[in-house]
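Quick entry between incubations.
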Amino acid sequence: MTNHIVDLKNTDCALIMGSNAAENHPISMRWLLKARDTRGAKIIHVDPRYTRTSARADLYTPLRSGTDIAFLGGMIKYIIDNELYHRDYVVNYTNASYLIKDEFDFHDGLFSGWDKENKKYDVSSWDYQADANGLPLTDPSLQNPRCVFQLMKKHYERYDIDTVCKITGTPKNKYLEVLKTFCATGAPDKTGTILYAMGITQHTVGAQNIRAFAIVQLLLGNMGRPGGGINALRGENNVQGATDMALLFHIIPGYVDSPMNTADNKDLISFIRKVTPGAAKLPFTNLAEFRELVKAGFPNSGWKIHTSKWVVSMLKAWYGKAATPGNDFAYHYLPKRDEKKNYSHIAMFEAMHRGEIEGLFVNGSNPVVGGPNSNKEQEALTKLKWMVSIDLWANETAEFWTHQAWDRPVKNPDVPRMTPAEIGTEVFFLPAAAVYEKEGTAAQTGRWVQYRWKGAEPVGDSKSDLWIYNELVKKIKQKYGASKRKEDEPIVNMTWDYDDEHGHDDIMKVALELCGYNVADGKPVEGFAKLADDGSTACGCWVYCGAMTFKDGKNIYKPQLRKKDDPSGLGIHPEWGWAWPMNRRIVYNRCSVQPDGVTPWPGDAKRQLVKWDPLALADPKNPTSLGSWVGVDVPDFIKTTGPDKAAFTSPFIMRPEGKGCLFAAKNSLKDGPFPEHYEPWESPTVNIMNKQNLNPAVKVWEPDKQGTRDKYPIIGTTYRVVEHWQTGALTRNLPWLAELMPDMMVELSEELAKEKGIKNGHNVVISTSRGDVKAVACVTKRFKPFNINGQYIHQIGLLWQFGFKGYATGDPANRLTPHIGDANAMCPEYKAWLCDIRRA
Amino acid sequence: MRVTRRQFLKVTGATAASLAVVDLGFDMTATASAIKGVRTRNVTPTPTVCPYCASGCGLMVYSERDAAGRFVKLLSVQGDPDNPINQGGACSKGAAMFNLREIYEEGTGKQVINPKRVQKPMYRAPGSDKWEEKDWDWMLDKIADRIKETRDSSFIHKEKIADGSEIIVNRTEKIASLGGSGLDNEEAYVLSKMMRSLGVVYLETQARI
Amino acid sequence: MANMTNLYDVSKCTACRGCQVACKDWNQLPAVIEPFKGNYQTHEDTNGDTYTIVKFLEMEDAYSGVQWNFIKYQCMHCFDPACLKVCPRGAYTKTDTGATVHDPDRCIGCQYCTYACPFQIPKYRKREDKVSKCTLCADRTAEGLQPACARTCPTGALKFGDREELLQIAEERVKYLRASGFPNATIYGKLELGGLNKLYVLTDTPDKFDLPVNPHIPKNITAWQNIIQPYFGWLIPLALAGSAFSFVSTRVLANKHGGHEEGGHE
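Done. Structure below.
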């Protein structure tokens, strides 16, 4: 979330799209309903199916799964055509005025630079025109035909209301009502929020769906302001934290690209040059020279100019004394992934299925239920030599080798069936303590990091995950002993000192390393601006720097703060826990004030978060440091950037150009600088917006498994219910939740039920080209057939939260879903595929 | 533990547990005598955060403690009234947190540890159709062996790259790690550090899917 | 002593069923797992180990399109409770804050109350051979705590407090709803059966929420009560032996043969 949960109370309009907020993030409705009661806010829900969220919305409209860009593209056109955009905001805070290279173009569903042979784009034309100094050319009048605004207008000309509704199946009158209601937040005194979840991301165009949100919100001037923003309702209690810690192949902690096996990654200097925006052509050969350049500042860099400090501090935290200026701070210890390979979830299981992986750690995860194409993923597990599963329960993945795990509702020659005797995988199950049987912090969806204290003892011999990893690494280190082999150095020299004086793991020791300390005295580093790239600071993850502070002779871990005051009345609660970065509760909050830095947006003084105060001291200890950004929220801006600096009106400090990107320049995305509608991989229709059916930049893993309309005429999608969580391991094992949603079910319209002779409560079988599942039919008025360009098309929805373990059991819906993912994030297309349904 | 019993009473509305005179403005002492099994006294509240969706609702774990403050028994888990995100609210999942550890048995109503919780490390040998209970030391030792065997036999230390030069890549593609979004930050951090130092590049969490 | 009650506003309920689980957590009730029958409302009715349920009602008309109504259903804590009237052992009492509380130590499991209740709330709990139902968390409220259901409600659909004050809030809310696209919005529990110690704000008429439009206690119940009351000391063994059975079976048959009116349902 760019904003946070409590901030929803400040909105004038909420567009909930690709999210069933009331069911999957119930507390969000507390604040949305409050906004409705106190501000007259409107709640809009756009979803293929009428849900518990729709029931509380002011306006509900259906759309066919996988057509969000058509829906939002039409909204972009509507905003431009009716001049509903927030002009001052757009001109000053976005790249609307930037001129784009003449080579950039778009034809027949392809952007310029398409490399047909390699099926990818050369992105060099997706760039700004620059002057002699490398600075972008702009036209603040927005009239130049090569400016982003005009190119965008041209791009979305095709997205007229009739065409959009033919694609999405949305009733025209409802669509117009949504456009009118949400786009009214373009008024300077209004803000609107967008809430989304996996209904947006789990598509072959997932990242571009979110880009479309970004364009809408930037045009309406809704970013960086209370009640606005693009708010990803994340699904796991600490998925934010796990991402911050880079439990993902493509990054290292703090969102720095992970190194690869290429020349520009071969040593620390090459790496810094590559990951620091604007540094590519600068003349430096060592960190000392680079440091001087950073001090002076260089163009097109943004806040990431400091990347070297984050990387070196991380290496110092990981490798301690072995990380020295003389050995690149042990940069070479880091694994370099193969540039040509993808290591994401789908790729991992494809490789495992080919027998390329020997050992797998499953850390509180359950791919046999939750992985796409789970028949295949389950089969992949049988090819492992060993597997370690750490969980509270022996879930479906931990028990993939049992007889039960291979039960299928129908005989299908394409679906493997195995017996325990045939499965050679050695399985280690380590029982983990539950959340309140241990302690530690979690970052919630609005980036608030909160402490969880220990309220009960772990059950039996179960242990906290920290204990498990701590003891395991001690064992591994023991096995490697004092090995002198070069390849063992990363293990032998890895710092691992988390025990207290009694030999128990000490979470505060981990926290200090994670948040950063000064190497000289071991005291916390008070904020990432104080990190250095000379080895004097160590910090595991720079975005958490500042969460630990030294006060009154001891370390204070700010996520433990429990002061609930809210001086601004905007729900900021600055001393409740801690939010990254630097306790900013609403990011890009520079946008909450006019470009002059002082005047609130007309009629919106109450929602101004920060301002430029020429008389405030930037450094309280330095009386000459006059002029600073101040406010009720921590300014998401460099405090000392005053009106004399060009960056004064550049609120998006992580971007090289400092502006919100209507046009995603260069290599921001792999599939185009503007979102374009493409059909899902398995679609019941053809793309009428352009000549490409599928997003051309997507990797097709299993071309032979593409279901077609003749055999599988119905759109299938998956989702969750409030009563269960993710794969259900943590809820189907709880009797009180099992009783509320006891069986695997599929929802279908009354019309489809009639066609198929299915009655409410019947057992049915749903099939795709990848497998079959059994479910109980829930025949409902809340699903309706779509009229798609004149065709009558059905959609059904399945809970994906069931498996064969627990108090509530049923078939995993993911036995049906495809191994295909988004072009950028590789997030699987769980949400739109083709199937058929029949009575069991 | 940062929250005292006194704070708990304050946040949940009672000024003093033994008096039952409360800030609702009514003395309901008379009512209390008619009720059996009062569970509102001598409890220790511990704040935590819900492990389900990422909204971050605060929860209070109420437990019985002995004189030395040691955990005796789990009583109830409810929304944390102080937490500004949920102000005491909890949906069905959050409200069911007691079941994460303990349940009331169907048929008897008896409070028991959730029988689905695994209480001992378990090992499944290749080709076997059953689990065997093992102790922690045996398990961790075996896992460390497997990691070392696989890593050492598959480790790529240096690689020749496109420009003909050699670079240190320090990776293994034969070990993979999945998950971690349910971990605490501190746990996710040490997992990330451990995996990367082992050379693991197949490193993924639920954020991807 | 004022009546303390819950106000439940359907226009704020998302049917998350936190109340249903919090009730089990506080009252130490085991799960009763039944198969899914095609409706989210897994339990068709409350039972001996389930004091409160949320009902899910799907409807559709040309004007409003699809609607999905949710309603929390539990003991209404009637001002003049039929259960209390018919109980031969005086197991039911009314607390001075208006809760109708059932004392299991006095209960003999005869189940008269389960048939007398116009809302069919008291339920037989086989594992103890006794009846059970919602207590309005009298043990919690006595200690100054809100009932578990009100405490847990994430959206504020459930509020606990002084009935008079809540009634005022309800009146205001109904006015607001009527002006905001719900012309049939109404309060339930204000006057029904002479007043219930549970208040509802409904966005539509009570029948759209499966609530009895005009609940009443059947006359024969009170008549039975007048006969049995003076003699219950010696009548109980007899009642258990035969009368109760015939009484109960008559009621069951009456219900089976469309006896909704007698049962208090519309």
